[in-house]
Amino acid sequence: MQILRRPLLASALASAFAGALALAFSASAAAQQTVNFWYHVDNAENTKLMDELVKSFETKNPDIRIKAENVPWNNYFDKLFISIAGGKAPDVAVTRLALQPQLLEMDAIEPITKRLAAWPGKADLANNLLDINKASDGEYYYMPLQYVAIYLYYRTDLFAKYNLKPPATCEDFLEAAKKLTLPATANGGTELYGFGMRGGKGGHDNWGPFVLSQTGFAPGAMNTPKAVAANSWYIDLLRKHKVAPPSAPNDGFNEIISAFKAGRTAMIFHHIGSAKSMADALGDKVSAVPVPSCGGGRWTYFGDESTTMFKTSKVKEASWKWMSFLSESDNNLKFNEATGQLTVTKSGALKVPQPARFVKATMDSLAFAKPLPLVPQTADFVSSVWPTTMQRALNGEISSAQMMDAIDKHFNAK
């Protein structure tokens, strides 16, 4: 009998040990929190960078697992809003400032004001970013992740050739545009226009520095004499002064970029997202400065992406750790490596791969950079109202006053 007891004892001990291991593993798994994170990227390189960031975070925070899901851009926000309506939102997602009012109306997002105040990395965020992101109720819901600000690209070779300085005001801009509009016979066989005007979709951020610097979207503001005159001034760049190509009413991003690189235009508006391709194509023949001031005011378009936390999250502290990790200097720099947008930190801005002159133009623009109105009407303004009315105005089908009246009614119809 004693001979039989030893195997039984060994078996019992083995079972007990296995049970203890299972309990320990179960306890460990239970202790680990999972953060569901949604984002979007447009190439495989960005996905690889995100995987590297997840691995780095999980190594430093072994009790947290990041489940990062790359959602295709073409249905990213549709999927996000459907998930919110169904009570199945992720814990954290990348979103845009323009959507903040809608998310607040849905009572979907968690304020991070107190967490942000205690975060050591706050002082490293670029100036004015938090002020731009602040909600109408005074709370912060968005952690800055990347941003752009529209600035003025100019051909340094052409400006030097005609002894011009980059424009600081609307008046300077028009003077330079006139001098840089030349027939092919006077410009080595290439017809030159001073300004690559973007009259097609997306051109509202080229129009804004000249018009929104002098008005706003409040009821009646768009059709005041001053606002109508500012819009007329912009339209006249093509119709009266002819400093933009005849194709301007229909020109979009590809058209203005191609003409600028080819030396057919001397000035365009865009942001740091195109800086690398500009530098690759033109080298030191291109530089950038903030948009000119007009009528005593200054305005430029602020484009952003941030992370936000959803109220339904059951792992809010872990979610905050992940959000703040993505916005820390070197981590944020890595996130923005392949996107071409600008890191949100001062320390990271010193290390970005884009030439310093483009980084400086972006950061110098933050003091007067603003988003379009954070209201539901903005989406249709961008996609249809502005391009349709601007194209008609540039073609002489409607007046400046009629265009501005249409914009005012779009935003303020009762």
TrEMBL record:
<dbReference type="InterPro" id="IPR006059">
    <property type="entry name" value="SBP"/>
</dbReference>
<dbReference type="Pfam" id="PF13416">
    <property type="entry name" value="SBP_bac_8"/>
</dbReference>
<dbReference type="InterPro" id="IPR050490">
    <property type="entry name" value="Bact_solute-bd_prot1"/>
</dbReference>
<dbReference type="InterPro" id="IPR006311">
    <property type="entry name" value="TAT_signal"/>
</dbReference>
<keyword id="KW-0732">Signal</keyword>
<protein>
    <submittedName>
        <fullName>Multiple sugar transport system substrate-binding protein</fullName>
    </submittedName>
</protein>
<keyword id="KW-0813">Transport</keyword>
<comment type="similarity">
    <text>Belongs to the bacterial solute-binding protein 1 family.</text>
</comment>
<keyword id="KW-0762">Sugar transport</keyword>
<feature type="signal peptide">
    <location>
        <begin position="1"/>
        <end position="29"/>
    </location>
</feature>
